[in-house]
């Protein structure tokens, strides 16, 4: 593998901060960061003047649909979409069919993912068979290579929370919860105001809020817990209070919750249907503040591909979920950095350092020499519309047609170029 020299960029590191200069990648590691570096003989050189160079993004919330719905996405197509999005590591969710709930299944799909262009990590079901009745075998799943435990798609059962937290901690795995009280969501499909406009069934804010409060209460007693896709002012307020009390809780949000609100649902278009649903304009602003003040730890895409046929039915019948791997970085750049909600360095914490810490990816999330040579180069200058057709096999995005900046120009994984922007 030749050395790679990325010249004249604005290098953004969550710890070192920003510096201009060159980045040298050698034998899969970062060899130099900053200053002028003379090109070693045989090196491949990229001039990235005017572009931003980040540690490769780590997306801790991705649904790849393999096994079970390869028509919507496979591990290979999700990995290609990630590469096109500047994402160099993904954590896959286990709500496949069958669920990734056994060591044997996990081993089989890990072996398949080994050839992917990006680093693919797997979470496994936190409850046996992902059925919500009894804990899964945390230690055996860890031995088979699981990086985290979650029942995402469904909430961890309230009754089992303390035990699940204890078992995950003992196995040395992060436990991630999709906070939703399903008895309060029921048949709802969207925010009550959008539901009233379009004649649909509402989802109460309380279904997330109550689950978040229960999660925090359980974690306060016994150990770390990570809250997935937070979407409400009340949720981030609760997370902020929990952190102030010193409780071991972390939280993520997704680009749609800081970019869109229920007001953006103008017609019965299932591209806007996801769980949790788009909330009020005030919730969106609270999520923005929580990103800026450090309450929210990381941004993940919750990439949830579904076929056009399944999404065609509108809000009533379509499955929940939107794709997000290819729009994660440009949405963060356009909505957060260019609008001066957060700095580039804070973005590197939210997309690189903090997810690396959550998943114990020791050499990732930084441009410091010695780190893995996973790099994302973004172009903040050229505005481009979100396309209708993606690298992903699916196209269920509410952002199609939106003008964004910060599209990936170059993605490098372990020193190898896996994507070059047009
Ligand atoms: O919108 C969603 N889609 N939310 C989830 O929690 C699950 C996901 C999926 O698997 O489609
Ligand atoms: Zn979820």
Write the layout of secondary structure elements.
Elements lengths: L3 E10 L3 E10 L2 E5 L10 E4 L4 E4 L1 E6 L12 H10 L2 E6 L10 H11 L5 E6 L13 H6 L4 E3 L10 H11 L3 E3 L4 H4 L6 H7 L7 H17 L2 E3 L5 H12 L4 E5 L1 H5 L21 H12 L5 E2 L8 H4 L16 H10 L6 H15 L16 E5 L4 E2 L17 E2 L2 E7 L2 E5 L2
Parallel strand pairs: 1-4, 1-5, 6-7, 7-8, 8-9, 9-10, 10-11, 11-12, 12-13
Antiparallel strand pairs: 1-2, 2-3, 5-14, 14-17, 15-16, 17-18
Helix pairs in contact: 4-7, 7-8, 8-10
The site of (4S)-2,6-dioxohexahydropyrimidine-4-carboxylic acid has 11 residues, from loops.
Structural commentary:
- The chain is α/β, with parallel strands linked by helices.
- It has 2 domains: 4-52 and 372-420, Roll (Urease, subunit C, domain 1), CATH 2.30.40; 57-358, Alpha-Beta Barrel (TIM Barrel).
- Helix content is 29%, strand content 21%.
- The chain is built from 13 helices and 18 strands.
- It has helices spanning 75-84, 103-113, 138-143, 161-171, 182-185, 192-198, 206-222, 233-244, 255-259, 281-292, 308-311, 328-337, 344-358; strands at residues 4-13, 17-26, 29-33, 44-47, 52-55, 57-62, 87-92, 119-124, 148-150, 175-177, 225-227, 249-253, 298-299, 375-379, 384-385, 403-404, 407-413, 416-420.
- The strands form 3 sheets. Strands 1, 2, 3, 4, 5, 14, 17 and 18 form an 8-stranded mixed beta sheet that branches. An 8-stranded parallel beta sheet has the order 6-7-8-9-10-11-12-13.
- α8 (233-244) runs parallel beside α10.
- The model has no long low-confidence stretch (mean pLDDT 98).
- Zinc ion is lined by residues 152-153, 178, 228-229.
């Amino acid at each position: 593998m030749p050395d790679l020299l990325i010249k004249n960029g604005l290098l953004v590191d969550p710890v070192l901060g920003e510096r201009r200069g060159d980045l040298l990648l050698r034998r899969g590691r970062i060899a130099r960061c900053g200053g002028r570096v003379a090109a070693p003989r045989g090196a491949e050189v990229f001039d990235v003047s005017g572009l931003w160079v980040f540690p490769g993004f780590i997306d801790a919330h991705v649904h790849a649909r393999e096994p079970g719905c390869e028509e919507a996405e496979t591990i290979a197509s999700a990995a290609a979409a990630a590469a096109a999005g500047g994402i160099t590591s993904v954590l896959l969710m286990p709500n496949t069919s069958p669920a990734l709930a056994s060591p044997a299944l996990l081993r089989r799909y890990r072996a398949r993912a080994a050839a992917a262009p990006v680093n693919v990590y797997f979470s496994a079901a936190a409850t046996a068979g992902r059925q919500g009745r009894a804990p899964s075998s945390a230690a055996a799943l860890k031995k088979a290579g699981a990086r985290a435990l979650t029942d995402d798609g469904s909430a961890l059962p309230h009754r089992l929370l303390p035990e699940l937290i204890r078992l995950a901690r003992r196995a040395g795995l992060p436990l991630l919860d999709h906070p939703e009280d399903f008895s309060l969501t029921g048949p709802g499909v969207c925010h009550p105001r959008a539901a009233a406009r379009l004649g649909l069934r509402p989802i109460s804010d309380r279904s997330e809020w109550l689950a978040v409060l229960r999660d925090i209460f359980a974690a306060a007693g016994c150990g770390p817990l990570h809250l997935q896709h937070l979407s409400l002012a009340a949720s981030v307020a609760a997370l902020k209070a929990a952190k102030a009390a010193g409780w071991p809780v972390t939280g993520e949000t997704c680009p749609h919750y800081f970019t869109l609100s229920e007001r953006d649902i103008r017609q019965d278009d299932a591209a806007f249907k996801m769980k949790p649903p788009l909330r009020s304009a005030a919730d969106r602003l609270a999520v923005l503040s929580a990103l800026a003040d450090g309450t929210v730890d990381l941004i993940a895409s919750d990439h949830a591909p579904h076929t056009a046929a399944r999404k065609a039915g509108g809000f009533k019948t379509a499955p929940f979920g939107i794709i997000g791997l290819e729009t994660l970085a440009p949405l963060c750049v356009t909505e957060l950095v260019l609008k001066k909600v957060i700095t580039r360095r804070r973005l590197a914490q939210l997309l690189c350092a903090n997810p690396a810490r959550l998943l114990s990816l020791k050499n990732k999330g930084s441009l410091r020499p010695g780190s893995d040579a996973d790099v994302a180069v973004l172009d903040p200058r050229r505005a481009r519309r979100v396309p209708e057709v993606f690298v992903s096999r699916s196209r269920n995005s509410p952002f199609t047609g939106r003008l964004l900046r910060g599209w990936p120009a170059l993605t490098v994984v372990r020193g190898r170029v896996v994507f070059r922007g047009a």
